[in-house]
């Protein structure tokens, strides 16, 4: 497979997963507000911190209101991480690889691109926003199913799912990092009674609430949520599960070499973590280390497969 096609498929996987993760995060946050006291002031900028676009957001929307954050995260084409931009980039990457993917995948992504251009403008009202986000999640899940059931297990398939797995691992660490620092600081004394509600929101933003209740079987707490989302071996959005999935895809590609070494390093950091001590600044430092390891893997992947 040509390096250009490998790169396009890897990033198509990342962009599709990014669009779905953003839609889940926005929906879960909107629902969280219904469970908090009516007078609670919510800092919508925390969602911008998760995607790491604080500077660009500050330049384009100095007010920081709910409407500005939603527009920035969903339909702003200047923001490369918005849902509309992610879907558009996935569409462009898949366009050049149409011969390698099921036709239905291209049609669904193209349809979602057109939907975001038309209906994405309705995100200011929360009910309409929820409908748009649900459509994004359903379409990306449908696309993943079509890839899983209709695509040959070749290098194109492995590269697409490699991108999806890495993006999912990256998003999980970002959500934990921003939400945990936001929730754990003592200054939020008035929200202490609602800590459990907020941690449930963290789980729901990663579609993890039901599986957490089923497998952890204890009350929702910050420490147990962090442990589950980072290290659970069976939950498909935990960081550990995603990295092992990426490792399996990478092993099928030709001569992974340094890429496999970097991925092994990231898994090693996770395996050696003492989760009983991960809270506050220690958790933040640990998540920064995981981000560094993922960036090192991306660099190795680019050098090995995309710059030939």
Description:
The protein has 308 residues and is an all-alpha fold. It contains 14 helices and no strands. α6 (103-119) packs antiparallel against α7, α8 runs antiparallel to α11 and α12 (239-251) runs antiparallel to α13 (258-271). It is globular and about 55 Å long. 42% of the residues are buried.
Q: What's the helix and strand layout?
A:
Elements: H1 3-35, H2 45-50, H3 54-60, H4 66-74, H5 83-95, H6 103-119, H7 126-150, H8 155-184, H9 195-205, H10 209-215, H11 222-231, H12 239-251, H13 258-271, H14 280-306
Structure in a nutshell:
With 308 residues, this protein is mainly α. Helix content is 72%, strand content 0%.
Structure class:
mainly alpha
Global morphology: globular
Tally of extended strands? Answer: 0
**Biggest sheet descriptor:** none
Mean pLDDT: 89
Question: Roughly how many Å is the radius of gyration?
Answer: 19 Å
Proportion of residues in helical segments: over 70%
- Low-pLDDT runs: none
Measure the end-to-end span: 11 Å
Beta-strand share of residues: under 5%
Return the string of H and E elements. Answer: HHHHHHHHHHHHHH
* Number of helices, counting only DSSP H or I runs of 4 residues or more: 14
